[in-house]
Structures are given as C-alpha cells and as structure tokens.
C-alpha cells in the first residue's frame, strides 16, 4: 500500500515528503501516547518503520521499493552510494 501510494503521487507529478525519512529519538520530557479506544503509551522514538533507521541502516524492502519507484520517474546516479555499511553492534548487559 505504501509503495502504491508513492507511485501514484509521482505518476501524477506530485510532490512527496518522507517524514521521517530516518528515525530519531527524543528522550526528553515530550513522551505521550495515542488514544483510539484505549490509551496506549508510546516511547519517544520516531523510528516507526521509517525508510532508514536511527543508526543509518535501511529497511531493505521499503527502501528498495521507494528507490525503484523513484527510478521510474527520475534518473538515479550511475554509481549510487547505497549507504550499505558493515557495522558491528555491541549490546551491553549492564552499565
């Protein structure tokens, strides 16, 4: 559904903004929650299935889908920087 929406917007020469194109976190005093039928607390992270994660990784399926759709309407660089970086993660069990 997401990819179809992006494709339709670009097909009709529309503008699109990916908010947030990457996740971000605010651990200050602005946390909250949503309320549909019941209150559900939400942590203060903007990493809601963004195209790029907070640490710069891509969500491969979503990122590739968006990139492929954009390529239908705009030329992509001939030697694009894919942003793929080999990273090593360390988890701390205690501090």
Describe the fold and architecture:
The protein has helices at 2-11, 60-73; strands at 32-35, 39-42. It has a single domain (2-73), classed as Jelly Rolls (Sandwich). A two-stranded antiparallel sheet has the order 1-2. With 95 residues, the protein is an alpha+beta fold.
| CATH class division | Mainly Beta
Strand count, sense and barrel status of the largest sheet are: 2 strands, antiparallel
Report low-confidence residues grouped into runs of 5 or more. none
CATH topology: Jelly Rolls
Radius of gyration: 17 Å
CATH superfamily: Galactose-binding domain-like
Strand content: 5-15%
Topology:
Elements: H1 2-11, E1 32-35, E2 39-42, H2 60-73
Antiparallel strand pairs: 1-2
Helix pairs in contact: 1-2
Supply database-style keywords.
95 residues; alpha+beta; Jelly Rolls; 8% strand; GH; Glycoside hydrolase 35 catalytic domain-containing protein; hydrolase activity, hydrolyzing O-glycosyl compounds; Gly_Hdrlase_35_cat; Glycoside_Hdrlase_35
Summed up, what is this model?
This protein is of the alpha+beta class and about 100 residues long.
């Amino acid at each position: 559904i997401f990819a179809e929406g992006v494709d339709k917007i670009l097909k009709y020469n529309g503008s699109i903004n990916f908010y947030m194109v990457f996740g971000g976190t605010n651990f200050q005093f602005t946390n909250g929650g949503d309320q549909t039928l019941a209150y559900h607390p939400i942590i203060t992270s903007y990493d809601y299935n963004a195209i790029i994660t907070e640490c710069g990784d891509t969500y491969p399926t979503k990122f590739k889908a968006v990139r492929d759709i954009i390529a239908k309407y705009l030329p992509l660089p001939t030697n694009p920087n894919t942003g793929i970086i080999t990273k090593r993660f360390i988890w701390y069990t205690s501090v």
